[in-house]
Each structure stands twice: as C-alpha cells, then as structure tokens.
Queue: 2 jobs
Job 1
Amino acid sequence: MSWLLEKINGGLVRVFLIVVALFWLVPTIGLLASSLRSPEDMSANGWWHVFAKPSQLTFDSYQKLLENSDITNSLWNTVLITVPATVLVVIVGALAGYAFAWLEFRGRDWWFLIVVSLLVVPVQVALIPIAELFGKIGLFGTVFGVVLFHVGFGLPFAVFLLRNFFAEIPRELLEAARLDGAGELRVFTRVVMPLGGPAIASLGIFQFLWVWNDMLVALVFTKSSTQPITVALQTQVRQFGNNVDVLAPGAFISMVIPLAVFFAFQRQFVSGVMAGAVK
C-alpha cells in the first residue's frame, strides 16, 4: 500500500511541475506567437488566436526586423560587448583564482579579502564616477568602455567562485605535475583548467546572461552607434510606440540567444552547481 501511495504522490508532483513549467512558458510562447503575426492581426485580437488560425503565421516581421539597421547593428553590438566581457572574466578570473588558491605570496589572504569585499559594491554607486573617468580618457560611449565596466564588476565574483573551486583540487595532483617538471602555467592549463571545467562553464553562463540582458550599464555608457539590443528595443518603444512588428521579433531574438547558450552548456552548468554543493 505504501508503494502505491508513493507512486501516486510522485505522479501528482510530476503533474504539478509540468503545469508550473507550462505556465512559466506562457510569456515565451506568447512572444513567439506575436512575432509571427502581422500588426493587423495583433491589433485585432490576442496572440492565442493563432492556434485557431495557423494561417496568421508569417515571417514578414522577421524580414522587416532584418531591414531595420538600428536593431541589426545593436544586435551586433551586443555580441561585441558580451563575448569579450565573458571571455576576459573567465580567463582573468581563472588565473586569479588559481593564484589565490595555490600560489604563496605576501598578503594573499588580505588581497583575497579585498576582492571578496568588492562583491558588496552595487553597480549603481559606480556609474557616475566611472562615467566621468571614461569621459576624461575617451572611453565613454565606446564598446570597449562597456566591456571594461562589465569585466571590472564581473571579476570579484569570478575570482571568489573559481578560487573556492580550485582550492578543493587534491594537492597531490598538482605536486605530481610539478615533480614531472611542469611549471605553474602548465599545471594551470593541463591540470587545473580541465578539472575546473564545470565551474568555469557555470561562471561563463552567469556572466554571459548578465551582460547580454544588461540595460542599465548600456543605457549610461553607450551612444546610438554602440547601443546593444536592450537599449535599441527601449528606444523603439519610445520613438515608435506602435512598431510591434519590429519589437516582438527583436525581443524574442534577444531572449532566445541566451536561452540557447544556457541549454548548450546546461550539462556543464549542472555539474558545476552539484560539485559546488557537494564540496
């Protein structure tokens, strides 16, 4: 009797989770359906009518989106900002994390404490001072300036995460590599990096999603020629309030790309989270 109750309870929990997942996906499904409808259909009735009339589906909005230079340029700017900001945070964070975990140098613990303390500094506090600094050195309004800002604020968390993960690597592995004549760089690339793959993948996903979806920093530090997709969509809403045939596909593309990145690396992400939980 107990096994039957457990099976029923397990089935009810599974059904409940499926229902919650479907409700969670409703906005995404609605945005996708809206992006595949004409402006006339969207103004006439709700997006759910597409299930009763599949003939409404069309890719004309996406074609119009590709003809909108503001959106396409902003999408390319988003890539130019997100990819370097993610790669630099991962590389520099991994090097610093290894140094704080396994290298002996004066004041190591104090330096690490300073890095960790930077986690509590909110982004909003630094916007105006850094904007003034970038204006004086000619970086304000440039893609490089936005990348530099994201790297600076992403590194404290990256160093904290990777240092704690690297510190759990067995010392015997590193000592064996050093006995074989490997230097610190070879130990880092051949031993530490492969073992730290799950944590590095988790960090990369977090950083990518944060930078891709950012609007506050981009709104302050970019201009019309360097603005990412988030600011471009907000500008479209402000200037062309009824331009839904561009906003809907643009918003969906802006959302589906980070989702694709997450699902592409979800196995490494889950491994990193589970490893951190166990350790």
Note: The radius of gyration is 24 Å.
Job 2
Amino acid sequence: MPITVPAYGKEAAGRLASMADVTADDGALRRFLHGLPGVDAVGLEARAAGLGTRSIKTTAKAYAIDLAISMIDLTTLEGADTPGKVRALCAKGVHPDPTDRTSPKVAAICVYPDMVATAKEALGDSGIHVASVATAFPAGRAALPVKLADTRDAVAAGADEIDMVIDRGAFLSGRYMDVFEEIKAVKEACARPGRSAAHLKVIFETGELQTYDNVRRVSWLAMLAGADFIKTSTGKVAVNATPPVTLLMLEAVRDFHAATGVQVGVKPAGGIRTTKDAIKYLVMVNETLGEPWLTADWFRFGASSLLNDLLMQRQKLSTGRYSGPDYVTVD
C-alpha cells in the first residue's frame, strides 16, 4: 500500500495555529526555544542505554525484522550514481530478497533530484515512494532561490518526499527565524497544484549541533515550521544517528503532539547497520511514542547497509542457517 501522511485534522490545525505567537518574530521564537527545558544529558544517555538492553525473541523478532525492512529508505547518494544503479536499487527495494517473495518492500528509494524520474519509472505502481535530497545536500550552503529551485525540480520530476538540510551555520549563530522561514519556504515548494504535496523531511545533521539542548530546540523549530518528519543526519559526516539523539527527537515529537495534536515522523540516518541496532530503535519508538508511530508512515531508517543484515537474519530465522553476505545482493 502507498505510504500516506494524513492531513492535519481541524482540532490539530487549530491547536497548531494557537502557537502562532511563538513564531511571530525572532524575539518570540528565541524566547520559546530557549525556554524549553534543558536536557539532562546523563539521564538521556542512561535511558537510551537501558532501552538498548531490551531483547525480543522468535516470532516477535521476525515481526520486528519485517517491520524494519518496511521502514527503510533505500538510498544511493553518490557522485558516480547512474540510471542503471538506480534501477537496480529500485528492483531490490521491490523484492529485497529475490529468493523469498514474502519479504516486505522498503518504504522509499532516496536519490538525488536528477535521478527522481528514473526511480519513479522503475518503481511504477509498486507503492514505494521516491524520496529526493534537496536544498544543496549535504552541506546546505546555497542561496535560498537555489535551494527552492532544487526542491521544485525534484517535486516536478515526481518525488513523493523531499529530504532537506537546514542551514546549520544560521542555527548555530542563533538566527532561528532564518532557519524557520527557510523550512517554511521549502515546505511551500513541495506543493503540487491539484495533487498532494511532497512530504518534507528536515535534516538537522545532529553531529554538528554541539549540544543536546540544540537538538531539542531545532526539533521544535522544524515542527513549528511544518516538517512532516525530522531526521538526524545526512550520513555524510563523522557522527550520524545515535540512540540518545534519536530518543531526544522522539521525546520532542511526543511533546509536540501533546501540545498541538500534530503527529510528526522521525528518521534516524547514518550508522545503523545491524538488525540488533534496528531493534533497539524500534523498542525506543514503542516505549516513547507507542504503536501509532510503529509504521513507515511515521518512522524510517536512513540506512541502506542495514537491509542486507536484516535479510540475512530473516533467512536465519526461516531456515535455521546463517547464509552470509554472499546470499544477498550488493548495492
């Protein structure tokens, strides 16, 4: 089935509108963001570590593996990408394990804007979304008109989702309203006349944000600006998704939903490579946000290398034997 993010209900839209004074001007936004509770780093890391010790067995593990596969944004973001490579990745997304057609499909194929049309054609009516990075990914160092053109090109080519990067320099300089307005502008560029808008994932590059307090602030800032998803990282820096940072973002989403009624998704990206890692994140989602977020509509993994390990673990559960990397396709 195609992945859809429901539109805000009237009650949720009204509650979100009631927070308009928070973003009325730079001073109000700054006061709100700096008025958020400070993060207890020791407590956050201890809770993330504790949730990481949970274990699940047999049928629950099989369910978790299939769920994780269905949440993957299978990605190729290299300068050497070719149409052939993108088509091969799409084929793998539709049938991750060619020897077992019971394997679920991935959530999306993520490519650069110039490869969107190729991915869209290759995926056909599979129901898998095409996601595209935009806004001068991964550094985000470009003028706003360039970023908006990048976004519009991807949307016009058929992208169902846009993964944008924030201007970390502006955020770290305290220019919160600049970041807010840029997210809003990109959100507007995701619109398609007469059709549903592309969903917007906002990438923070948390490894560059220096403090947990900054992660909490930028999470709220992006959600107030209209993000459909908040995402940890580009996968292009030394420190990408970590359990404590992801837990903090999940808590921000929980608190934002409690305040506004608006549901926002979360995508940890980069550095998640094993089935054990994926299950830790799923436990974290379940314990923090609950079952409504345990779908590809509201939680994704940006971790292409993860898929092969999930497939090998899936084969082991079904056959009793560990097949090894030679039994799955190499991306």
Note: Strands lie at 73-75, 108-111, 129-133, 161-165, 199-203, 229-231, 265-267.
